[in-house]
Amino acid sequence: MNVGSLIRRERQKQGLSLRELARRVGVSASMLSQVETDRTRPSVSSIYAIATELGLSIDALLSGEAAAVGHQVRRGSVTQSAGGAACQLVAPEQRRKLELESGVTWELLSDLLPHLVDFMYVTYEPGGRSSSSGKMMRHTGTEFAFLLRGKLKIQVGFDEYILQPGDALAFDSSEPHLLVNEGTEQAEGIWFVLGRRLTPESHVPRRMTSVDGTDVRRPGD
């Protein structure tokens, strides 16, 4: 099942009209209709808003585009270590891919904890941006970015950061933010979004402890 069909099925399952879901996520009904019929690709901000409103994980959005999985352990299977811990190895050809508007691509690196973590390889083509309109987006969670290639401008609130290869940035995703590749080459990096879809079973404490034993409060506490 493709992404558009999945969104339409989940919307109908929840008893939402096209116009109502469009209103909730801040897009036009015609634009949402085009996304559901795969006539257009959503932006990063739109797909986050839709997924959050419908309670969908990134893994669920990509489930219809999974590559064929063989019987070897390395083919994305979840196994258990000798100690009983779950392990998952995903080969490059096993990554599920979602191509978004404006030259942005997400590749899922793991679906081991889809209710808690979005772990992705992200590519921004030259001119690519998280919102085609230039509007900043916000969602629950904490975002961690590590840039591998190219340059990427990330605006968080009133602050701008120009990431270059080797740079890492972490920020509270509930702050308005916008990502733009203003360069002439692809920007590629690893993205780790924690707590975008917090549920009671996630068991993420509001207070954490640093390595030196001091209390660390999550952003917004």
What brief labels describe this structure?
globular, single chain, alpha+beta, 6-stranded antiparallel beta sheet, 221 residues, Jelly Rolls
Polypeptide structure, described:
The structure is a single chain. The protein has 221 residues and is of the alpha+beta class. It has one domain: Jelly Rolls, CATH 2.60.120. It is built from five helices and 13 strands. It has a six-stranded antiparallel β-sheet. Strands 8-7-10 form a three-stranded antiparallel β-sheet, with no helix packed on it. A two-stranded antiparallel ribbon has the order 1-2. Strand 12 and strand 13 form a beta hairpin. Helix 2 crosses helix 3. The chain is globular. The relative contact order is 0.13.
Topology:
Layout: H1 3-13, H2 18-25, H3 29-36, H4 44-54, H5 58-62, E1 75-80, E2 86-90, E3 96-100, E4 104-110, E5 117-124, E6 142-149, E7 152-156, E8 159-163, E9 168-172, E10 177-180, E11 187-194, E12 207-209, E13 215-217
Antiparallel strand pairs: 1-2, 3-4, 4-5, 5-11, 6-9, 6-11, 7-8, 7-10, 12-13
Helix pairs in contact: 2-3
